[in-house]
Amino acid sequence: MTTPLEKSDGAPVPETDPAPIKERIHIKVCGVGGAGCNAAGFIAQDKLDPADVLLLNTDAQALAAFPLPGKLVLGLKRARGLGTGGDPELGRAAAEDDAARLRSFCEGADIIFILAGLGGGTGTGAAPVLARIARESGALVLALATLPFDFEGGRRQRQAAAGLHHLKAAADAVICLPNQKLFKLLDEKTSVLETFKISNSLMAGGLRGIGRLLTQTGLINIDFADLCSVTRGRHVASAFATAEAGGEKRGEQVIEKILNHPLLDCGQVLNESDAVLVSLVGGPDLTMNEVHKVMEPLQRQCENAHLIFGAVIDGAFTGQLSVTLIASRHGAAESAPPDAASCVPTAPSGDMQFLDPAAASRPACRFVAPAPEMSNEKKEQLYTRQTGRSGKRNTRLQKELPLEIVFKGRFDKSEPTIRHGEDLDLPTYIRRGVALN
Amino acid sequence: MFDSSPIIVGLEIGTSKICAVVGEVNAGNGLNIIGIGQARSRGVRKGEIAEPALAEEDVRNAVVEAEQMANVEIRSVYLGVTGNHIRGFSNHGVHPVVSADREITEEDVQDVVKNAKAINLPIENSVIHAIRQHFQVDAQTGILNPVGMFGAKVEVDVHVIHGRVNRLKNSIAVVKGLQLEVEEIVFNGLASSLSLLSNEQKELGSLVIDIGGGTTDFAVYADGIIKHTGVLAVGGDHISNDLAYGLKVPLGRAEQLKVDHGSAVLEPDVKGRSIDLPGQLGLPFKSINLEHLRRIMALRLEEIFELIEREISHLGWLERLRAGVFLCGGGARIPQIQSLAENIFQLPSFLGKTSSISGLKSALDQPEFATAIGLVRFGFLQQKRKPAGGLTRAVGQTLAEIFKR
Fold it and tell me: Do A425 and B299 touch (CB under 8 A)?
C-alpha cells in the first residue's frame, strides 16, 4: 500500500513505473590475458559503457597499450607485472591474490562476459577464478574462450583443455572458438594480424549478438531464462555463430552463411546439438517469409533439438537481417571423465613442480568441487530429461522399422519404392514369408 | 533442299543400358532405322540419374557409337524418361457450346481441351504429356473430332502424364551437358507402346509392359487411344538383388545366374536340383539350389504383374484389353515370362515386335530396343504434325534444316 502512494508522490512517474517490472540488464565485459584483452578492447570500441569493461593481465606492459580506463594488473606481488611465462598456476594464483578487487568489479552485474584465450598462463589460470567469483556475486557468467592453433604445440593444447574444463565447471556457459577452425576462413594471403583480427571479431560478433538478444525486447522475446536453459548444466561447450546479410535475398543468404559457418563445422554441430537458440534481428521490414526461410532449414537440420526462437525488431537493421545462434548439447556423463583424467595428471606433473605442495593440492579440490555439486543438483533432472528423450526416440523408431531388418543391397541408398504400404525393394519372398529351406 | 532426309534420334537413359537409336525418314515418308549405339549404364538407379558424371560418360559413348553406325552427326534427341515419380491419370473437361446455332467450332474444342488440362498438380510437378482422348457431345461418346457437330455441351478426356520437374531436369541436364538438344521428353512406357502396337491392336485394346532394369513401365490402349500409363520402380535389378540376398552370392554373380538359369515360372521338375558354380578369381566353389533361385525370381515377377493387374482392373480397363498383353524390355527375355503374364492377366500374351518400321533387322527384333525405337517413332510423328502447327514454325524448321547442313 505504501509503495503506490510513494510513487504517485514522486516526480518521475513514467521512469519508475516500468522499472520494477523489467530492469535494464546490466552487462559487464571482462577480458583476461593477452588474447582476452585484445578481444575486449575490440568490443569496447562500440557502444559499451567504458566502466563496464575490465581488462585483466599479469603483463603490465601489454596492458598499458590499451587506452581504456578499466585495467587491472593481476598478481603484482607474484609476477611483478611481467606476465606468467605460460604458467597457468601462476595465473590462477595471481587472480586469487586480487580476488577482492575482482569481486568489487563483479558487483551489481547481471551478466558477465569473460573473454579469454586459453592455452597461455593468465587466460587459462585466471579465467576460471574470475568466473567463480563472478558467479558467487550472483551474475550469469558466459565465457567466450579461444583455443590455440594446432601448431602452438601439445603443451598449450593440454593446458587449454585443462583450463576449459575448469572454466566449464565455474561458468554458466562456455562458448568455444577453436582457432584452428579459423583456417577455413583464411586464404593464403591473410596476414597474422588479420587472422587475430578475425578471431577477435568473431568473438565480438558472438558477444554482441548475445548482448542484443538479452537487452532488447523482441517481438518474440528471448530472455535470460531461455539463454540459461540452453547453456546451463551442459558441460559440453556450446558453439555459437552469427551471420548478417542485407538486400533482397537476405533470408537465403543468412541461412546459407549459418549452415556453412566454420564454427558450426558446416552445420555438423547442429545435427548433434540438443538445444539450439536462434535470435533474429531485423528492421521493421522483416517479413514472415524471411523468418520462415531461416527457421525452416534450421528446424530440419536439428530435428531432435529443443529449438528456442526469438525475433527482435531494431530500426537500425532496416534492410538487414542478423542471426545469432547458440547450440549446445548434453553429454556431461560421457565427456567429463576423460577430460578430468587428461587434465589432472598433466597439471601437477607439468606445471606445478615449482609451486609448493600446499598450492598444488589446492586446485584439485577447488575446481573439481563445483562439478559434482552441479551434477548432484541436476543429475536427476538431466537423467529424466535424457531418458524421456531416448524413450521418445525408441517408440518412434519402432514404428518406422520392420521387425526384420533386411539389407537392401544396391537400393540401400535410393528412394524406397513404396506401393500399398509395402517396400518393394525388399525381396518378395521375404515379404510374403516364403521359407527357403 | 530436302534431298537429305532429316534424322530423328531417340535416346533412352536406362538403368542397365543407355541406348541411342537413329532413324531417318525415307523417300516414301516412312521411318527407317539406320543406326544404334548402346553403352552399359552405371550412373542410373531405378530409371533416374544417380551419378550424373558417370551417366554423361555413358551417354556420350552410346551417342558416338550410334553416330558412327549411322554415319550422321547427332544434334538433338528425343529423350525417354521414367522413374517412380511419374504418374499418369485421366482428367475430364467440360465446355458449354455458346454459339446461337449450337454448332461446335474450333474454339470450343480448344476451350474444352484447355479445361481438361487445367489440373491441380503439386507445384514441383510438371506435365510431360497431355494426350487428348475421345470427345463426347451431349450424350454421344467416342467422337474423334467434334468440329462441325451440333450440341449443347462438349466434353473431353485428357490423359495427363506428369512427373517431378527437378528429377526430369536431371536427365535433361546430362544430355545438355553433351551439347545435345533435347527436342522433347517422352515417357518411356508411351514410347515402347508406339513401337510395338499396330493401329489394330490399339483399337482392340492392349497392355504394353516394358520390364526394364530399374523400372517397369506400362501403358493401356483401348479404342485406339491411350487410356492409362504407369511406372512401377521395380525391375530386373530387383530380381538380381533378391537373388544376391536370398542365395548369398555377390551381385554380379546373381546377375549372371538370373540370365543363365532364370525363369519366370517355378516348375515342379526343378525340385532338388542344384547348380554348381565353379570357383573363379576369388569366388569360391558354390552350389546353388535351383528351386530357390526360381522361386525367388518367380515371386518377384508375379508380384510385378499382380501390382499392374490390380491397378488396371481397379480402373476397369482389364476387360477392354482384347488384343492382349505385349511384353518388351530386357525382362521380356526371361524364359516363360509369357505364360506367367497369361496366368496373371488371363489374356493372350506376346513378346512385342517392333512393327511398321523398317531398318536394321537385328535391332528391330530385340525387346530391349523397343523404347528407343519408340522414341524415334514419337519424334517422327511429332515432326509430321509440326509443319501443320503454323507457318512460322514450318519456316523456322526449314531454316533449321538449312543450317544443319
Answer: no
Inter-chain CB proximity A410 and B241 less than 8 Å: yes
Under an 8 A CB cutoff, do A409 and B245 touch?
yes
Bridge partners, B90 (sequence order): B159
Query: What percentage of chain A's residues is helix, strand, coil (to nearest 5)?
Result: 55, 15, 30
Protein fold of B87-162? Dna Ligase; domain 1 (3.30.1490)
In B, what residues contact A, Cβ < 8 A? 45-46, 50, 84, 232-234, 237-238, 241-242, 244-246, 251, 289, 292, 295-296, 299-300, 302-303, 307
Mean pLDDT of A193-212: 77
* Cross-chain Cβ contact A417/B233 below 8 Å: yes
Nearest-by-CA chain B residue for A425: B238
**pTM for this predicted structure:** 0.53
CB within 8 Å: B251 and A410: yes
CATH number at residue A267: 3.30.1330.20
Could you tell me if B218 and B308 are in contact, meaning their C-beta atoms sit under 8 angstroms apart?
yes
- Measured CA to CA in angstroms, residue B235 lies from A231, B14, B220 at distances of 52, 11, 19
Instruction: Tell me the three cell numbers of residue B73.
Output: 552427326
Question: Is the CB of A421 inside 8 Å of chain B's CB atoms?
Answer: no
For B142-175, write each residue's pLDDT tens digit.
888 888 888 888 989 889 999 999 999 999 999 9
- Residue A113: strand, helix, or coil: strand
* Closest residue in chain A to residue B215, using alpha carbons only: A417
As for the ipTM of the complex, it is 0.78
Q: CATH homologous superfamily for B198-353?
A: ATPase, nucleotide binding domain (3.30.420.40)
